[in-house]
Amino acid sequence: MGRPESIAGLLVELVRRRGVPRWTRALVAAGAAVTAGVALSRTHDARPAPRPSTELTRWMTAPLDGSVLFVDPAAVATDLGWVVAWTRWERGSEPVVQVAALDRSGSLRGVTRSVSPPGSFARGPSLARSGARVAVAWTSSNSVRSSIRPWLAVVDADAQVLVPARPVSAGPEQTFDAEVASDGQGWGVAWRSWSPSHPGLTLALLTPDGAPRGPITRLPVDHVGVGVGLAWMGDAWFAPVASYDYERDRSALQLHWFDRGGRLIESRSMAPSRGEIGPLQATARGATAWISWGDDAGFGVRHDPRAASFEGRRTAAGPVALGPRRSGSIPTLACTATG
C-alpha cells in the first residue's frame, strides 16, 4: 500500500483491504465519510470559493487553439486494410464520431468522415464487418440531453457512407455501451439501458441497411454495471453484461444467448468478484466465443485482467487471469484464423 495522503485516504484504503470484518468496514466507511464532510465544511466556512482569475477566464473563453481530444478508438479488418473509428472532441464543441479507411500498411486512404449527426453528443463507436459493409454503432444525445440513444451508420471499405446515421431505438432511455455485430444477414446492436421502465440489457436486430428486423428484446438485469458485449456464434447471439451491486460492492458477469430472431435461449451468471467489473470485450469465430474484462476496478485505475472462452453455451476455459493481480487495464482481444 502506498503512503496515504490523508486520514480519509487511509480509512478508504483500509475499507478495501481483505480480511476486515463487515461491521468494521461499515464503521470505517462511515468514519471516512464524516471525516471528509467535516474537512469540506471547515474549508467552506474558512473562506469563500475563489473566483476565476482574469487569465483563467480568458483561457476558457478563447477560440480553439489546438485543444482536440481523440478517444474511443475502434478498428475492423477489411479486404483492403482496415476501417477505423474514433470520437473527436474539440474544446467548446460537441464530440463527433469519425471514420476513416487505412491500407494494409496503416496509411490513410481517402478522407476522414464524420458519421454522427451535427450538434449531437456522440461517444463510443463500435465496428462490425459483413462482406464489403462495415456497421458503426455509437451512443448519442441531443443538446437537451433528454435521452441517450444508440445510433447506427453503414460505410464501405473506403469509409464512404452507404447508410446515413439513424437511431436504433426511439425510446426515452439512457443508453450506454452500444456494441454491434453481424450474423451475415444483418446487424445486431446491444446496449445497456438505465431507463426506469426498461433497465438492463437491450438487443435490436437490423437489416443490412439498418432497418428494424423484428421487435426489440429488452431483458431486465439486476444491478446493471459498466460494460456489455455482443458476438454472433453461428447459431446464437452471445451478449455478456457486467452487473455491479453498489451496496454490497460485488460484481458478476451475466451471460445471455439469443436466437437469430432475438428470443432469449439461456442465461447464467459467472465470475463473482469483489469490487466493480470494468468494461468487457466479446468476440467470436464460428461456435467459439471469448470474453475479456477487468476485475476489482473500484478505488483505482488498475484491474485484474481476465478472460474466458465458450463453445456454444458451454464454458470451455476460464475465467483465467491474464496477469498478476492489479497489473493492468482492461484487455482487448480478437479472433484470427489460427487463434
Poorly predicted runs: 18-29, 38-46
Largest sheet, in brief, is: 6 strands, antiparallel
- Give the helices and strands as they follow along the chain: HHHEEEEEEEEEEEEEEEEEEEEEE
Total number of strands: 22
Helix fraction? 10-25%
Structural class: mainly beta
Number of helices: 3
How far is the N terminus from the C terminus? 38 Å
Round the mean pLDDT to the nearest integer and report it: 79
Provide a descriptive summary of the structure in words.
The protein is mainly beta and 339 residues long. It contains 3 helices and 22 strands. Helix 1 (7-16) packs antiparallel against helix 2 (22-46). The longest helix has 25 residues, at 22-46.
List the helices and strands and how they pair.
Blueprint: H1 7-16, H2 22-46, H3 54-61, E1 68-77, E2 81-90, E3 96-103, E4 108-114, E5 121-130, E6 133-141, E7 148-156, E8 161-167, E9 175-182, E10 187-194, E11 199-206, E12 217-219, E13 224-228, E14 231-232, E15 237-238, E16 241-245, E17 250-258, E18 264-274, E19 281-285, E20 288-295, E21 304-311, E22 314-321
Antiparallel strand pairs: 1-2, 2-3, 3-4, 5-6, 6-7, 7-8, 9-10, 10-11, 11-12, 13-16, 14-15, 15-17, 16-17, 17-18, 19-20, 20-21, 21-22
Helix pairs in contact: 1-2
